Amino acid sequence: xxxxxxxxxxxxxxxxxxxxxxxxxxxxxxxxxxxxxxxxxxxxxxxxxxxxxxxxxxxxxxxxxxxxxxxxxxxxxxxxxxxxxxxxxxxxxxxxxxxxxxxxxxxxxxxxxxxxxxxxxxxxxxxxxxxxxxxxxxxxxxxxxxxxxxxxxxxxxxxxxxxxxxxxxxxxxxxxxxxxxxxxxxxxxxxxxxxxxxxxxxxxxxxxxxxxxxxxxxxxxxxxxxxxxxxxxxxxxxxxxxxxxxxxxxxxxxxxxxxxxxxxxxxxxxxxxxxxxxxxxxxxxxxxxxxxxxxxxxxxxxxxxxxxxxxxxxxxxxxxxxxxxxxxxxxxxxxxxxxxxxxxxxxxxxxxxxxxxxxxxxxxxxxxxxxxxxxxxxxxxxxxxxxxxxxxxxxxxxxxxxxxxxxxxxxxxxxxxxxxxxxxxxxxxxxxxxxxxxxxxxxxxxxxxxxxxxxxxxxxxxxxxxxxxxxxxxxxxxxxxxxxxxxxxxxxxxxxxxxxxxxxxxxxxxxxxxxxxxxxxxxxxxxxxxxxxxxxxxxxxxxxxxxxxxxxxxxxxxxxxxxxxxxxxxxxxxxxxxxxxxxxxxxxxxxxxxxxxxxxxxxxxxxxxxxxxxxxxxxxxxxxxxxxxxxxxxxxxxxxxxxxxxxxxxxxxxxxxxxxxxxxxxxxxxxxxxxxxxxxxxxxxxxxxxxx
Length: 692
Hints:
Elements: E1 3-11, H1 16-36, E2 43-49, E3 52-60, E4 67-75, H2 76-79, H3 88-97, E5 105-109, E6 112-121, H4 126-140, E7 160-167, E8 170-171, E9 175-176, E10 179-180, E11 184-186, E12 195-197, H5 201-210, H6 217-233, E13 238-239, H7 243-250, E14 257-262, H8 272-280, E15 286-289, E16 295-303, H9 310-336, H10 340-344, E17 351-353, E18 357-358, H11 359-377, H12 382-391, H13 399-403, H14 410-418, H15 423-431, H16 446-465, H17 479-493, H18 499-509, H19 518-539, H20 544-551, H21 558-572, H22 577-591, H23 608-629, H24 633-640, H25 644-653, H26 661-679
Antiparallel strand pairs: 1-3, 1-7, 2-3, 4-6, 5-6, 7-8, 9-10, 11-12, 13-15, 14-16, 15-16, 17-18
């Protein structure tokens, strides 16, 4: 009979950013384990707070299904003599498997005929399997950082303090790191710290709520949002929307309680980003705005306890924030006294990487790359691009940005405007860091896009050039993010930019720093971008086979590759095109292994079918090549459909691999030219035969 599994890992407070990925991983790991063990279940759910990660599996089967196994024995010729009598090998195998010789069977395998026996293996009881399953969940749960505690070898994000493990009403006999599983959990650390006995999942959620722990992440998020919304209403205002901060706060607490605080109006003179960042970056406070969206001298803090005297809590928050705002105001006033241009020379004393020089060295490379890009895509803005790249990193040595790192670029823009720089240059300084996250804001100006591309390509080539490539989940220099940014900016701005030329230009500037052969680095960087581009196409809804078909014919121009993918996706849905793809596979199968381009002469066409194919090829080529050159790939692909019948007729009537070498090569040469025409758009041999 199926029963529910409830498993809770109780810990010291986990970092907020660890919780959501850990809950997803816990769910995925559990699902994979139960499927591997052939244990059926009704559903899987994970819940969590900073002090617990919880797995709930509904209707988990009480045992594995019985199964039949085939156990292979010796070869038939070794198991039986010429008269068919069993040998010692057969008798020994039968005895070992606990069956009679008569139960042995013969099976044909790629290595010949072998003796085997079929055995019915009873399924194991779930309660006996669970200890190892739970141990695997604990030991294999991934975290960005782990630690050890006490004398135990187990590594986890934070020390584990208890396990709750119930299968139905039964405690799972599970122990690790000196902790035995029980039916006990614990409520809020301060408001309800006593042990709580649990019988089932419904009771678990209810009793924890009564003990000031909202274990359902969605419920806790909604309650946190309600708390801060209600707090803002006390001053007839609303909370400045900040989804990321809301999620972070919900994962920092087990039971939310919002406090509305105030600060001196004089701090409203600070730039808006400075004020908001001072509240959110270290204190995780929410800003408060009026109906016009203007900042008010108030903030909201989310607390994990409901105090006896709220005024003391409010005063504490206000005291801490005032110190932060005083610091921010002091740094801002000091920074304003030094023009941004004078900051650039300070970058020479800031290390970028031990093997790549200083931030000033990077700045000079960014200038050269930005100018190179501007000459191609904004020839009237070359000087502005140089200026923006020159100042792009200067705010990193300002005191305010050193205190609040998330203000990089934002304060660069502010200080550039205060220094009298053109608006375009100031905006490009801010935009060159974009996008900061997957799917995040992209540069709006062409100048911002140019400096952003220069910065990101220099980063990629520099770290690949010294052998610092991402490995597994490790990417300390943000190279995946840089590649993603390059792709999305190019596509967003529809820049017909040669990746190869761009990479080459970046590598030239790094010549003295490279530790690997330049061609090797070039290839690795381009392939790295290519893999991210495949992901970008998948995120845009393209099927895997269409992505492969387009990538197989090149992605040096990302905009062109996207256009080809879009055209192929549209045309492949038409009635005749899938059949053409099948015909093209026949063409590719004939020519893909050829080492060189074979000669072709019309005079060697002797069969009617090959003559008709050649005539059709010439007509389609004449029609489609201008379309391909103009980037009208959808029309070109529709034109290719006209070759379907001539190709089919050719393969039905003509034998290509004849003994006459000249005739054979001429036919292959014709097929090569047809393949070349198709490959100017995509390699259709990668497409699945069914549409949709």
